[in-house]
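Problem 12. The chain below contains 314 residues. Write out its predicted structure in token notation.
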Amino acid sequence: MQSTNVAHPILAVRGVSKTYEGGFQALKSIDLQIARGEIFALLGPNGAGKTTLISIICGIVNLSAGEITVDGHDIGRNYRAARSKIGLVPQELTTDAFETVFDTVSFSRGLFGKNKNPAHIEKVLRDLSLWDKRDNKIMTLSGGMKRRVLIAKALSHEPELLFLDEPTAGVDVALRREMWEVVRKLRENGVTIILTTHYIEEAEMMADRIGVISGGELILVEEKAELMRKLGHKELILHLQEPLSDVPPGFSDYDLSVSADGSMLTYSYDTNAERTGIGSLMRRLAEEGIRFRDLSTKQSTLEEIFVNLVEDRP
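Solution.
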């Protein structure tokens, strides 16, 4: 599937496939372009190919076909230049337990051949609220602080593209929201961010665009707002004055359902339709003497859209 056209992308993935020994095809001709400064969320069930795609882009796994460029550098022909543009924050909390925060982050910078820059390391630690922990050994930190250290390590060599693999896995709700603020601040500082997440709410809160991967295929890439508009549907919920046992006869033209206790009548309609049918429905209900004491509307969540997309795959 072709992604939305992006002028001068920082990341371009073209026709990328991955087949392992034994014949298992983990990725099938992936095309994707990422614009500078955007937050892109990659969603998909377990085994869909998210981690494989990230691992290939980061040079951890070799691709079977296709090409990838990062800021114009081919990940195969010019690996060092391409990889220097990338920061990767893995899901696993693997850090040097006996090193201090400052030394750990500084060492990561050196791995990319960068000269020492204590001022940059200080800025990264301050941005991540880690400066007051700079002399603490990693083993003494909380899980949330360790995750921040992983981000600091990934930012130590001044990458322009940051991958966050399940950045809030295993953290509580309060810390998750703190991490969202960290991600937004990174974007404000000019870092392009690609995140994988199992928390649909996370993508809905932060992402500019959403990609859905299933069975090794990128089945959809869309602006978040446009995705919600295209695939979302709304429900009009009528709280009835008198309960109904079933949908009244003669209303087969409307997508209606009655709640189990008969107190609510729900009308589902297409947000993109030229006419929603609400006006005619209300008139028909009035003619039939069906009265309601209150009404409300509900729009599809991104989670519902995602589940429907994946379930609809053959």
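Discussion. The radius of gyration is 24 Å. Students who got a different answer should revisit the alignment rule from Section 12.3.
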